[in-house]
Structures are given as C-alpha cells and as structure tokens.
Amino acid sequence: MSFPVRRIADGHAGWIAAAAGAILPLGFAPFSFYGLVPLSLAVLWALWEDRDARVAARLGFLWGAAAFLTGTYWLYISIHIFGQAPMLLAVVLMLGLVAIMAVYPAVTGYVVIRWTRPGPRRWLLFLPAAWIVAEWFRGWLFSGFPWLSLGYSMTDGPLRGFAPLAGVHGVSLATALLSGCLLTLVFGRRSARIVGAAGVAAVLIGGQVLASVEWTEPGERELRVALIQGAVPQDRKWLPEQRQPTKDLYLDLTRRFLDRDLILWPEAAIPAVVSDEFGYLETVLAEARAGGTTVVLGMLEQEPGDGRYFNSLLTLGDEQAVYRKRHLVPFGEYFPVPDFVREWMRLMSLPYADITPGPQDQAPLPVAGELAAPSICYEDAFGAEQLDFLPRAGLLLNVSNDAWFGDSIAPHQHLQIARMRALESGRYMLRATNTGISAVIGPDGSLVERSPQFETHVLTARVRPYTGSTPYVRFGNGVPLALATILLVLGVTRRRA
C-alpha cells in the first residue's frame, strides 16, 4: 500500500511542494505565524515518501525556490531600485541566489530518500539531522546566506529556549524534530504515534523549561544609551547636497543627549570617508568628551596608501577605537567575480562596490568603559562569528542601513535575526539603523524599545552589560552539530538492529 500523501498528491506534488515553500516566510517576521514553519517542512517531507530520490530532489528544489523567492524578493529592491543595477541584471542575480538556496533542500531530499528507508525513523532521526547539517552548510559555504534558517522563526515561539543552549541551528533542529514528530503522529502506526506524541510534548516542554533558565548575570553598572535613527532616504543619502544636512542632523541630535553614557549612530551614518571629514569628527569628539559620553558611529574608511575602502565603526570619546566589517555582503559590498569581470563592469559603467574586509582577529570594541561585540549590518546574521568577542564583551552592538530594502519584509526579518543574537548570548543588543528598525533588545531576545520606520527618532534606554556564558557561547555550533550526529548514529544503529 502506498503512502496516503502519495495517493492524494499524485499529479500535483510539485504545486503542493511550491505552495508549502511559499508559506514558509509567513512563519518569520513581520508575520510571525511560527506554527507554519514545522507544518511547511512536514508537508515537504510527506511528499518525499514513496518517491524516487530524483523526484524528491525536484520537489525539494521547488519548495526551496518558492520559499526563498517569497522570503527574499527584497533583494531585487536593493539591487535594482537602490543599487541602480539594470533590471535584467537584478532579476538574474536574485533568481540566481534563489536557485542556489533551493539546491540545499534538493540535495537533502535526494540523499535522505536515496539512503534511508521510509517511515518514522527517517522522520524522527535522519531528516531532522540532515536538514540541520544542510542549514549549517548554507550559513557559511561560499560566504554563506543564513536567511530563513528555521530557528529564527521562533524568537517569539515556544522553542526559543533552545537558543542559549545550541544557537539558532539548535532551535532549527528542535523545529525540524517537531515536524518529524507531527508526521509520525499523523501517519505512523499506533506504537509510532505514541512516540510522535511524546516527542511533540518533549520538544515543546523542553523549550519552555529552557526559556526560564538565566544563563548570564547582569553587571552592577547601568548604562544610559541613546540610539539615533536619522531616517535619511536611501535615494538621497549619497547626494553631494545631502552631506551637510546629514552631518548637521546627527550632530544636533547628539548634542541633545550628551548626558547619556553611550550614543550610537547607524552604519555609514555620514555619507563620506573619514579622511574627508577630520574636522567634523574632531567636533564630534570634542562634544563627546565635554559631555562625558562615548559616540559610536558608522563611516567608510579609505587607506591612504592603496586606496582600499573599509566599512567601519568608530569610537569617539575618552576611548578611541575602530572596528572594520569582516563579513561583507556579496554583490552589495563586493562582487565575488574574477578581476576581468570587474574590469568589464567598470568599462560598461555598471555600478558595483568594492569594499575590503577587516581582519578576523579584531578585539571587542571599547564603549563607555565597557566592551561590546560589534557587527555591521549583515554580520549579525552569522552568530558563530559573534562568538569571537564573547564572553569578554558585555553588550552587543549592531549598526545597519536597511533603507536598501525599502518598505519590505527585510528590515523586520533583520530585526528578528538581531533578536536571536541577543538570545543566544544572554546579552543586550543595541541596534541603530538609518531608517529603521532601531531597537533595544533584551538578553532574552525581547524587544525592550523599538523605533518607527522611516522617521527621525532617538531611542533611549537603560541597560546593563552582562557577564557569564551561555552553552552556545562556550561551544558554538558544535552543540547542534553534535546533536545531529547523535540522531544519525541512532538511526543507523536502530536500522542495523
């Protein structure tokens, strides 16, 4: 007898897979219907049963293409509308990335269906483990693109408690296990259904219990912070006539909050390179010292010798330091193409960026007498890289310019990613952006304060640096990968038995 889903879906499996993938982004911000995420995954896995491995790969590709097309369509906005790339090039780049991302569920489907037997053991052991390994690969291979990792959907969900234990991939693993348990509960035999029901209860209860654990401790010192959101429109930000109004705006807003311990500006807040604005920066430094505060601002640096550009954070106050962005945005800050392609683009007058990555071994950023783990824009999507600054850093800082994505879902997704970083580390995250969404995020991932979008706004709050380490800070992605390995070993062992 064939699997019941096979009988129902025959002739429509491709459409069903695509529909299941298309609803996946609804589980993430700003919609946050997180229950759809394990459901979407369960539908795909059910479609894989009683299928040839090649068919499973095709269905996985359709699911992934639909998920990433609906979940990252905003790439077109940044590349074409604000990046001014030709429409055809923007479409090709967006669809190319979508296709690459869709390969991961396709390969997962092929491998699992090719090498494992149908039934609950596949759903409960092999599929969750393989899915998380693929997600981990997607987060770093070829620079990585960890967007829409399953775990991000659970920042307000019942599985968020797994984040301090095993990071976003640990939450993803719990979500995938929930999908497997749901399949077992619905389609398994009686004994298997008991296991599925127990698994659902264990995952949900485990997430709630872990969410109540306080892994880190607040320090004694309280910091008064101000996060400045200038709301300079992206299509005007780099116009020559806009530079002075932008400089005046940030300096004026800063002067109103000099009684704060820390003032944070967004990424590339001033549309110029540091070497062109020494006089202005000296003024900001003098104001900061006079007020007894620290100003941290984003700005481009250019090396005088070789002309290389860096996307940087500057600390101005009694302590002065620089952090240079390490993980650049492909096609946004650099083009991962051979030099001859860049030369052709230059000859054709096609716009492209060529930023140099900063060194990997940078120290935490000193701010207001404390140490902070800095990240610029896209960097906060790579949780393991933030561990380089922890547990020494008591705060997380993120500056960004999500104006590149207009009024799309991208700024909301990015805020959700920042919330996961706070939850993983058990520390406050201070996030200043150009047009929103700026936010003060608590050590439990909660939104303490947030700004409206596309409005000039200053967030003020009182925060405490935290000490101590979560298990994820200690062991990083080793925890979820070890758990995935255990599931695979259990599956193989039981199969042999």
Termini Cα gap: 25 Å
Fraction in helix:
40-55%
Could you tell me the CATH topology label of the largest domain: Nitrilase/N-carbamoyl-D-aminoacid amidohydrolase
How much of the sequence lies in strands comes to 5-15%
Radius of gyration: 24 Å
Question: How many separate structural domains?
Answer: 2
Proper CATH architecture of the largest domain: 4-Layer Sandwich
CATH superfamily of the largest domain: Carbon-nitrogen hydrolase
Shape: globular
Tell how many strands the DSSP assignment holds: 14
Number of helices: 17
Average of the residue pLDDT scores: 92
Poorly predicted ranges = 347-352
Largest sheet features: 6 strands, mixed
Q: Structural class, from secondary structure content?
A: alpha/beta
The spatial strand order of the largest sheet comes to: 6-5-4-3-2-13
Can you tell me the CATH class of the largest domain?
A: Alpha Beta
Q: Topology of this structure?
A:
Layout: H1 4-9, H2 13-23, H3 36-48, H4 53-71, H5 74-82, H6 87-115, H7 120-138, H8 163-187, H9 190-211, E1 217-218, E2 223-229, H10 234-237, H11 243-255, E3 262-264, H12 278-291, E4 294-302, E5 309-316, E6 321-324, H13 339-347, E7 365-367, E8 370-376, H14 383-386, E9 395-400, H15 410-425, E10 429-433, E11 439-441, E12 447-450, E13 457-463, E14 466-467, H16 471-475, H17 478-496
Parallel strand pairs: 2-3, 3-4, 8-9, 9-10
Antiparallel strand pairs: 1-14, 2-13, 4-5, 5-6, 7-8, 10-11, 11-12
Helix pairs in contact: 2-3, 2-4, 3-8, 4-6, 5-6, 6-7, 7-8, 7-17, 8-9, 8-15, 8-17
